Amino acid sequence: MALNTQPNLHEPGKRHFRAFSPGDDFYEALIATHRDLTDEQSAMVNARLILLLANHIGDISVLREAMQIAREGA
Amino acid sequence: MLSTFQYPKFDYVRPPEIAEARDGHYPVVIVGAGPVGLTAAIDLAQQGQRVLLLDNDDTVSIGSRGVCYAKRTLEVLDRLGCAEEMVQKGVSWNVGRTFFREEEVFNFNLCPEPDHHRPGMINLQQYYLEDDLIKRARLLPNLEIRFRNNVIGVTPDAEKATLRVETPDGAYTLSADWLIVADGARSPIRTMLGLDIDGKIFMDRFLIADVVMKAEFPTERWFWFDPPFHRNQSVLLHRQADNVFRIDFQLGWNVDPEEEKKPENVIPRIKAMLGDDREFELEWVSVYTFQCRRMNRFNHGRVLFVGDAAHQVSPFGARGANSGIQDTDNLVWKLKLVMDGKAPATLLDTYSDERCYAADENIMNSTRSTDFITPKSAVSKTFRNAVLGLAEQFPFARALVNSGRLSVPSFLADSRLNTADSDVFAGNMIPGAPMDDAPVAMADGTQWLLGAAGNCFQLLHYIPDAGALDAASAQALRSLIDAPIPVEAIVVAERGTAPAGLKTLIDAKGRVRERYDLREGTSYLVRPDQHVAARWRALDLAQVRAAVARATCNA
Ligand SMILES: Cc1cc2nc3c(=O)[nH]c(=O)nc-3n(C[C@H](O)[C@H](O)[C@H](O)COP(=O)(O)OP(=O)(O)OC[C@H]3O[C@@H](n4cnc5c(N)ncnc54)[C@H](O)[C@@H]3O)c2cc1C
């Protein structure tokens, strides 16, 4: 499977009437996860988050593709 | 400054209460002739209600404030008979472009779906909006506007509200069975009544400049994150009527607004953006801060709050006047039913419930935009810049870029006025949905579904050939009008003409059928404010009557 770069966010049981809503729901939750943390704590949260999500995705070829794109923009 | 617009000066007329030294009494008084008070007044007067509108000023909104009026606002104003002038005068746009540093990262189209009457948004200076509303208001004989009438005291009781009003000729007293408060964000009346409004202030300042220039910029919304000409901040450019361009510069919190407003400080900012060679004239400059907050409830007995008096949002997403006008769209038919004794006063609680829900959605969306545009922490800024960096190449990231989600109406899916579906439907036109528009053809020349909908309860009944409607169904549909709360039946069809006494609406392009998932027999009950109240796969008069009762708190 290739890395999916199309909008793909959704929430089971929740009906979205506007295309922007699921992405905005996610982004708000993401920023809220970091609320009141120091920069160091935030870096740790991000690392943990990536590890959790990587395991969930499972397919290492997808992860390699994502890691490469991510590194290009550093 | 301000060479393109001549501010009208409205005459003050000595009120009869002063001339005749007596107190006045009115069924409904509205305080505040801003966009929201004016739409409330026009809507009520159009419904046959005598209205008195008081304003402490004698002209329209001064300087640069509201710019963008959304499709839904135009649809409401169409119902009030005054959108066409605004659309003609204003600048219609659908495309927005987003820039990050030196590059354009992507653009979007607000209205990708064809076959809607009104564009996603028009840009028009707020003074034009108000001027057009006042012109419309003046055509209504049962609507009286009193300029330079300043409300200085309000005493509500169980049956009425008593007002003390100051004029150039002294003060007078009047009472009103119902008082609509549309006196703006600072709402003196809210303060007089000691009512709270909760929320938060954003620690940021924005410089707005109206600039007149002949520029070949297309009619699009341009938004810059961290541009080379205004590092680390955002900039927004909009074209308005008369070649007036509105520019918003984010300034941050630690600046002196008085210094920033000086032309010698503003002009270099604009030159850095437009280049040294571009000729322009500065029409207006101001610095604003903003807050997101709302009252706990919008109805307090005989006193009903609408617009900025009831709720405020950050300007990202243009939800101020747009949402205030939707307040009045929701309130007026309910208030009229209550005043006419056809619905209990609890119907007004649903005004508060539905519009508080909408206000929360507006506040949520504009807060999200604000947090994206002005990140509050280092990690938040890193995420923001990562999204912008990915957006050029990857569609998923474009969907996350949030430079303002433009005003769209709420789906009142949880409203207690809805009758829940008992049949299965595809699409978004669920009970509580704001109706989708579509091109239609009617004998009276109406060309849009939303031009045929509104002002009263209606039942849209679909059959492919209107001429094939059987006598019993025709009789049932006609009978809906004979009720304390009449329901106007409209036969939606591909072809043919409905039997006498029924309106036919031809679904010119098949969009009504598509958007509302119509099949033979499908019937939609819609509210006077063009929201779906109930729908069925077959016509059943008892169900329609029950749904009307439910939608009016008469159940
Ligand atoms: C920079 C900026 C940009 C904006 N951009 C947009 C936009 O793009 N789209 C949008 O929809 N909205 C926008 N808004 C918001 C919009 O301007 C307001 O939401 C809108 O004006 C609210 O209308 P209103 O009728 O509730 O109140 P107001 O327009 O504030 O009107 C209140 C009226 O009440 C009168 N009044 C007050 N007190 C009394 C009293 N005691 N007695 C009698 N009369 C009284 C005032 O004179 C005034 O005429 C913007 C606002 C700002 C500041």
Automatic annotation (TrEMBL), chain A:
Xref: InterPro entries: DUF2783 (IPR021233)
Top-level taxon in the UniProt lineage: Bacteria
Pfam families named among the record's database cross-references: DUF2783
Protein name stated in the entry: DUF2783 domain-containing protein
Highest classification ranks of the organism: Bacteria, Pseudomonadati, Pseudomonadota, Betaproteobacteria, Rhodocyclales
Automatic annotation (TrEMBL), chain B:
Record has Transferase as a keyword: no
Keywords tagged on the record: FAD, Flavoprotein
UniProt keyword tRNA processing present: no
Domain FAD-binding: residue ranges: 26-365
Annotated InterPro entries: FAD-bd, FAD/NAD-bd_sf, RIFMO-like
Domain of life: Bacteria
Required cofactor names: FAD
Name of the molecule in the record: FAD-dependent oxidoreductase
Source organism per UniProt: Aromatoleum toluolicum
